[in-house]
Design a protein that fits this description.
The structure holds two protein chains of two kinds.
Chain A lengths: L17 H9 L5 E11 L7 E10 L3 E8 L3 E5 L3 E6 L2 E7 L5 H14 L9 E8 L2 E8 L2 H4 L2 E8 L3 E8 L4 E10 L7 H7 L1
Chain B lengths: L2 H35 L2 E2 L13 H12 L4 E8 L2 H17 L4 E4 L6 H5 L11 H9 L2 H13 L18 H10 L5 E3 L2 E8 L2 E12 L6 H21 L4 E6 H35 L2 H26 L2 E2 H8 L1 H16 L7 H27 L4 H28 L8 H9 L10 H20 L14 H14 L6 E7 L2 H20 L5 E3 L8 H14 L6 H9 L15 H6 L10 E5 L2 E9 L4 H10 L6 E5 H35 L3 H21 L6 H23 L7 H20 L5 H20 L6
Parallel strand pairs in B: 1-8
Antiparallel strand pairs in B: 2-6, 2-7, 3-6, 4-5, 5-6, 9-12, 9-13, 10-12, 11-12
Classes of the chains: A alpha+beta, B alpha+beta.
GO cellular component, one term (chain B): plasma membrane
Keywords (chain B): Membrane, Transmembrane, Transmembrane helix
Organism (chain B): Iodobacter ciconiae
Chain lengths: 198, 779
């Protein structure tokens, strides 16, 4: 009667950990956050890392927009109800929440990571880390074996913004993302930005 | 006293002794049965005829429904995840603590093992959409896409193994497509479900429980209900806002059993009270009351004994219907005492000897009615018929052989019995008079109007009598889970497993356009999970050339990335159905594989989003186009069978009228019509009035006509035997019989089971008219 689920290994829970709370206190929680990224991905079996650059936009009401500019122009849009990847204007991947209920959870997770709002990850991850002055760093290790088979650990660090995300996957792939040039003004999405979300 | 009376007396005494031995046997057997050995059926469909044209469909349906017969699914929902979780934990705790033999499935372990089951077969598994994509895109396009995807954050389907094992992540996408067939996901180790509507979001958690008893038992099903209620109460106590929905065959069965229990009590006790009151007022003495009750009790014991010996199990509906036997079996006892009343005790032997032929005739005409019911192919009706005929015969024999032995005292006429008996004289006489003309006009008008209003309806769903609350929960859960319809499906048969899977694939190709135009929303097929070996070979060849070929996706992506990637393609053994069935991942669909079936193998494809009759016709039309495929629409088939038997039974009834008329002519000669015509009129009037009341004509109305014939004619026989308007005994006997029959079937008309309701109502009208009309037709 019931088919298995796949993506719920990303499921969210909402039990707060003290450490996560004190990290949250240090972070600004803007309506809209813009910035640039540099992604450095080491794929297992590849000699060279894959480096890509672009910008990102996190809007509390609309979702996350990840725009890669080099070496290929592509966009990844995560809104409440779907995930859409585009390349040269053509959709290469689309997953909607009506077909795949986990979409909302994935998007929630990604939103949390980008915003440093990790207080909701306590049940899924064991959270360790430290805080010194404005700076903080966290290491998330999966509590459940199932998630552990996909993700070894996640490292996050930053100050009032998340500056560095390291995803250490069980396959051996490692992705290091550096976020920079964050700004929160204007506090609302511009008309142009709104269109990009549609 | 003459010699013949003496010898009659002696033979009755002997018969009474023999009967005592048999009755003791019935009592012993009943004690055995009721101490837990009685097997009861509750499913209304078990009453209905098997589709004699196709046992295959029957087997397939049975195999499909057997898998669901013991399972209950509980869905607990709340406004947020935490409250649903807390409520479900409380619910599960109660179930765990109960002493019932239940398999509770609640917390789900490591699900990644389910997924990794498919990894060895990754190069053989492709969906139709994926094949389409691989075949229609250029290798350059595919390679570019794969490289670009590498630069994106790892969002999307999980990837299994290294990138060069599957650069297009075909396995992840294939599993994603499989997962999309269900809305159920695992969250915090629970099967969960999310729904959003205008009123907000709701979070649901599923738990399933399966009864472990190997035997189908109503007791076990009924024992489940209080535990589920307690669990629900505990869940609601933790979280007052949550919603608890439970569905499953055992719940319906338990509800049917409780309803039947209530009805057996109402009908049985109601009839009993009525009979006691009647005998109290009509016969004043206590003896007739005890003896009549004794005859009914023996009738019921005999009926239960014989039925369970003959059929092995009893249907609940038989018992409910059997409760109305109380009112019919009473006839013989009250007939005996109507004749006995006002005579000295010593005359009872002569009286009985004189009455015997008429009483046997009356019993036989009723038994003919029941036995013709037994000739129908309806398992349920056969039981009812055997039950009733046995019960009547036993009650009748008790009256004939035991009553004279116990009935020694005086019996005076009572005021009520005199009053009833003398009412006979007030009946108008039909002949060449104005009243007859008026009567004829009224009857003709009613018959004409009724005949014009009559509509038949054989929809088997009319027979459903599950409580509305259960049905509402069923509908809600089906919508939440987007479950495929269980009532219609494709049955796929083949000589080998491979041919079944290939035929499934051929059929699925024909279903794709129907999904595209929205006729159905989807299907659920085994071959989606385990493609045929032929398909797996094709898939492997396609992946080998497109992805791992010399100029394939991996090679091109490698040169674009400046990496030398070694193709890791390894041909592997095909995925076979036995391995899949043995793995936990097959659990949700396993029941659709029917396995060895008749001379080959069979499977079932279920459909989602079927609701309109137009779609059914469209779906049925596909089946003949693919070898080995049959469209099965259980609802429609049963309804068709019901309709066919409605017509057939109408002919049987016409035939029985002829038979009864022959029997009557043998005894009454040219006057025979006077005993039969009132019953014929009563039956047609009953149908006409039901039609005017807007009741659809169905098989169960027709079947009632058979019994109306059997009983109504008795009234004619008793009155025609002694047609004197001033003879009180025959009319007293007929009236007492009619009163208790009306009471029994009147109570049956209150039944919540639609079939019994239709039957009872028709009987009520038909018997009422028979009693009313018969005296007017006497010479």
């Amino acid at each position: 009667m019931f088919t298995i689920f796949l993506l719920s290994i990303f499921a969210l829970s909402s039990h707060a950990a003290d450490l996560a709370v004190s990290v949250k206190e240090r972070l600004v929680q803007p309506e809209v956050l813009r910035g640039d990224f540099e992604q450095n991905k080491q794929v297992s079996g590849f000699k060279k890392p894959l480096v890509s650059r672009g910008d990102f936009l996190v809007a509390r009401d609309s979702g996350v927009l990840w725009r890669t500019q080099t070496p290929f122009a592509s966009t990844l849009k995560l809104s409440r109800d779907e995930i859409v990847a585009k390349q040269e204007g053509a959709v290469t991947f689309r997953l909607s929440a009506s077909k795949e209920p986990s979409v909302r959870m994935i998007n929630g997770l990604l939103f949390s990571l980008m915003n440093g709002d990790v207080s909701s990850l306590g049940e899924l991850f064991k959270i360790e880390g430290s805080v010194s002055g404005k700076a903080w760093q966290l290491t998330l290790t999966p509590r459940q074996a199932a998630l552990g088979k996909i993700m070894r650990k996640i490292e996050l660090s930053g100050d009032q913004f998340v500056r560095r995300i390291l995803l250490d996957e069980a396959s051996g792939d490692q992705t290091l993302i550096r976020l920079s040039a964050q700004n929160t003004e204007p506090a609302k999405l511009s008309k142009d930005e709104r269109i990009r979300f549609e | 006293m003459s010699v013949s009376v003496l010898s009659n007396q002696a033979s009755i005494r002997l018969l009474a002794k023999i009967w005592l031995v048999i009755v003791l046997g019935f009592i012993g057997h009943n004690i055995y049965l009721w101490s837990g050995h009685l097997q009861l059926d509750t499913d209304i469909l078990a009453m209905l005829p098997q589709d004699e044209r196709d046992p295959t469909v029957q087997n397939a349906t049975r195999q499909l429904s057997d898998s669901a017969a013991k399972r209950v699914v509980v869905v607990i929902g709340g406004q947020n995840w935490e409250s649903a979780l807390a409520a479900t934990d409380a619910y599960a705790a109660i179930l765990k603590n109960s002493k019932l033999p239940l398999n509770l499935r609640y917390k789900i372990g490591d699900e990644s093992a389910w997924l990794s089951f498919f990894i060895p077969y990754r190069n053989q598994l492709l969906s139709a959409a994926q094949r389409q994509q691989l075949a229609s895109s250029s290798i350059d396009q595919l390679a570019q896409g794969a490289v670009a995807a590498l630069y994106q954050p790892g969002i999307g389907m999980p990837r299994f193994g290294e990138w060069q094992d599957d650069p297009l992540n075909l396995l992840g996408a294939w599993l994603g497509e499989r997962a999309a067939e269900s809305k159920v996901r695992i969250r915090d180790g629970r099967l969960s479900l999310m729904s959003s509507s205008s009123s907000g979001e709701a979070f649901y958690i599923l738990l399933t429980l399966e009864q472990q008893d190997s035997a189908f038992s109503i007791k076990a099903q009924q024992a489940l209900i209080p535990v589920l209620d307690a669990a629900k109460a505990a869940a609601l106590q933790t979280q007052p806002q949550i919603e608890v929905l439970s569905v499953g065959v055992p719940l319906h069965a338990a509800a049917a059993a409780s309803q039947a229990e209530r009805e057996v009590h109402t009908i049985g006790i109601g009839s009993m009270v009525g009979i006691v009151l009647l005998t109290v007022f009509a016969f004043s003495a206590i003896r007739p009351r005890i003896l009549v009750t004794l005859s009914i009790a023996i009738g019921l014991l005999a009926a239960i004994s014989v039925c369970s010996l003959l059929f092995g199990r009893l249907h609940l509906i038989t018992l409910v219907f059997g409760a109305s036997l109380v009112g019919v079996a009473e006839n013989y006892g009250s007939n005996y005492f109507s004749s006995r009343q006002g005579r000295p005790a010593a005359e009872r032997w002569t009286m009985l000897k004189a009455q015997a032929p008429v009483m046997w005739l009356a019993m036989l005409t009723t038994a003919i009615g029941y036995l013709l019911l037994a000739l129908t192919p309806f398992p349920g009706l056969r039981q009812i018929a055997v039950f009733s005929a046995t019960g009547l015969l036993a009650a009748f024999v008790t009256v004939m052989w035991w009553f004279p032995l116990f009935d020694k005292g005086e019996m005076k006429h009572t005021r009520l019995s005199n009053w009833i008996g003398t009412r006979r004289a007030l009946w108008p006489h039909l002949g060449c008079n104005r009243l007859t003309l008026l009567f004829a006009i009224v009857v003709a008008t009613v018959l004409l109007a009724g005949g014009l209003a009559i509509k038949s309806n054989d929809d088997v769903r009319l027979l459903q009598s599950s409580p509305p609350a259960l049905i509402a929960q069923q509908i809600k859960v089906s919508q939440l889970l987007d479950l495929p319809s269980p009532a219609q499906f494709y049955l796929i048969r083949g000589a080998s497993i491979e041919s079944v899977l290939q035929q499934e694939e051929a059929l699925k190709a024909k279903l794709v356009p129907l999904i595209a135009k929205g006729s159905i929303s989807g299907y659920q097929a085994i071959s989606d999970w385990v493609p045929s070996a032929a398909q797996q070979t094709k898939n492997q060849a396609l992946i080998k050339s497109v992805v791992f070929g010399q100029q394939g996706v991996l090679a091109k992506a490698g040169s674009a990335l400046g990496e030398s990637l070694t193709p890791s393609f390894k041909p592997s053994q095909p995925l076979i159905i036995a391995d899949w069935l043995a793995a936990p991942v097959s659990e949700p669909l396993r029941h659709q594989w029917l396995g060895r079936f008749e001379n080959g193998y069979a499977s079932v494809i279920l459909l989602r989003g079927v609701s309109k009759p137009v779609q059914l016709a469209e779906l049925a039309a596909l089946a003949p186009g693919v070898a080995g495929v049959r469209w099965v629409d259980k609802v429609a088939e049963v309804s068709t069978v019901m309709g066919r038997y409605r017509v057939l039974m109408a002919w049987v009834i016409a035939l029985s009228y002829l038979l009864v008329f022959a029997a009557l002519s043998y005894r009454f000669g040219k006057q025979a019509w006077r005993a039969l015509l009132p019953t014929l009129l009563a039956s047609t009037l009953a149908l006409a009035i039901l039609a005017l009341l807007g009741q659809p004509l169905q098989l169960f109305n027709i079947l009632a006509l058979l019994l109306i014939l059997g009983m109504g004619v008795d009234y004619g026989i008793f009155l025609l035997e002694n047609p004197d308007r001033h003879a009180t005994r025959p009319f007293l006997s007929v009236t007492l019989a009619a009163a208790s029959t009306l009471l029994a079937f009147g109570l049956l008309a209150l039944s919540a089971t639609p079939a019994l309701h239709a039957f009872g109502l028709t009987m009520l009208l038909g018997i009422g008219f028979s009693w009313l009309l018969t005296p007017a037709f006497m010479p």
